[in-house]
Design a protein that fits this description.
The chain is mainly alpha-helical and 154 residues long. 73% of the residues lie in helices and 0% in strands. It contains six helices and no strands. It has helices spanning 7-14, 27-58, 62-83, 90-93, 100-123, 129-151. α1 packs parallel to α5 (100-123), α3 runs parallel beside α6 (129-151) and α5 runs antiparallel to α6. The relative contact order is 0.15.
């Protein structure tokens, strides 16, 4: 009998090596691992955009080249924000500070961000610049929601 995927299974399938915040001692490390894994995925997307820019250069499509470069710059900035997002303070990850429902909310926000980045990663070759920017914007909004939530614990 197949069981339904829970939030931990979903996160684990999106980020290799990610096991979640199951042990309080490892929360900061897992949080950092998630951030680095998502950032690495965005770096791959940026590489694909470089390839698309080079193709536009070869066919001398300056408008496409500029649009893709603008998209790449936005993605690069977002990647930096993901990689250097607040990992949470020591007090945030301590036993006394966080409650189970708050931890679940962080899981959900992390999952939302990871799913947006995964969607972007899977579609980079197949969609136009407008759609790429839209996917990037949605992912940025997810990161901002997560960062705002964590900042509420400082």
């Amino acid at each position: 009998m197949d069981r339904k995927k829970n939030i931990f299974d979903k996160m684990g399938s999106l980020i290799p090596g990610y096991r979640g915040y199951a042990e309080r001692d490892g929360r900061m490390n897992c949080d950092k691992l998630l951030r680095v894994g998502l950032s690495d995925r965005l770096s791959i997307v940026e590489g694909v955009l470089y390839d698309r820019i080079n193709q536009a250069i070869k066919i001398k499509d300056k408008n496409q080249m500029r649009s893709l470069e603008d998209c790449r710059k936005q993605l690069n900035t977002f990647n930096y924000k993901v990689r250097h997002a607040p990992y949470g303070e020591t007090s945030f990850f301590g036993d006394a500070q966080i409650k189970d429902e708050e931890l679940l909310q962080i899981y959900l926000l992390d999952l939302e961000l990871a799913e947006h980045i995964n969607e972007l990663s899977l579609n980079t070759l197949d969609i136009g610049v407008t759609e790429l920017i839209s996917l990037t914007n949605r992912a940025q909004e997810s990161l901002q929601k997560r960062n705002d939530y964590i900042k509420g614990f400082k």
